[in-house]
Amino acid sequence: MASFLSEILYNVDKKKVTELSYSIENIEDKNKDFNEVNVESELKIITELELNQLLKKADLDKGKTFVNKNCASCHDLNMPIKNKIGPSLATILDRKIGNLSDYKYSKTLLNIDKKWNIVNLYYFLEKPKEWAPGTKMSYRGISDSQKLLNTIKYLRENSISNEN
Ligand code: HEC
Which candidate, 43, 153, 155, 156, has a CA 20 to 30 Å from the CA of 28? Predict the structure, then answer.
């Protein structure tokens, strides 16, 4: 009887051990997926929804100061539309890329059939030459993500107020 009981207990334990190691494997599998997701987020795959959330916390005034200091030498930001070395950014939000008829864009921008939504602005302004190889915008990009968000927030607000 004793050995019968211990056999049952042994079997139960064995089953538990098997279940346990199975679930550990599962956890490891989940970690594997998680790591893969992390690799992707290092490439900064960002959705419009996520970006909108981040923009809520971005600083509009700092964005304005940053743009005046870093972009305004090449880009006008006020109405009516005037171009400088670079095209006007007064109405940039949701404008088709390379769309101002009296500005001479690079072939690169002319060939991108998208509009300047916040996601495309994010990628272009982070690394202009990587997102749009061949662009004639010589600006090297905004590596500080908070400054990048502040800039996009200001460009968006400025554009909305110019179009109203
Ligand atoms: C040294 C001048 C220079 C600076 C500084 C500069 N840009 Fe540009 N930008 C350009 C030029 C030139 C183009 C046209 C690029 C092309 O045709 O490939 C351009 C294009 C753009 C476009 C595309 C506009 C369109 O009509 O499709 C955006 C958006 C833009 N710049 C934003 C910015 C912002 C924001 C900054 C500051 C953080 C900035 N740029 C700084 C010269 C500049």
Answer: 43
* For ligand 1, atom 6: residue with the closest CA: 71
Q: What is the pTM assigned to this prediction?
A: 0.79
Helix/strand/coil for 115: strand
- Pick among 3.40.630.30, 3.40.50.11030, 2.60.120.10, 1.10.760.10: CATH of 48-163: 1.10.760.10
pLDDT tens digits, residue range 3-42? 555 555 555 555 554 554 555 455 445 444 444 444 444 5
Collapsed DSSP state (helix, strand, coil) of residue 15: helix
Q: Which of 62, 64, 71 to mutate to test the pocket of ligand 1 (most atoms within 8 A of CB)?
A: 71
- Is any atom of ligand 1 closer than 6 Å to the C-beta of 106? yes
Per-domain boundaries in the chain? 1-43, 48-163
- Cα-to-centroid distance, 81 and ligand 1 (Å): 15
- Give CA–CA dist 69/150, Å, rounded: 13
Total residue count of the chain as it appears in this document: 164
CA of 87 relative to ligand 1 center, distance in Å: 7
> From CA 55, how far away is CA 65, in angstroms rounded?
16
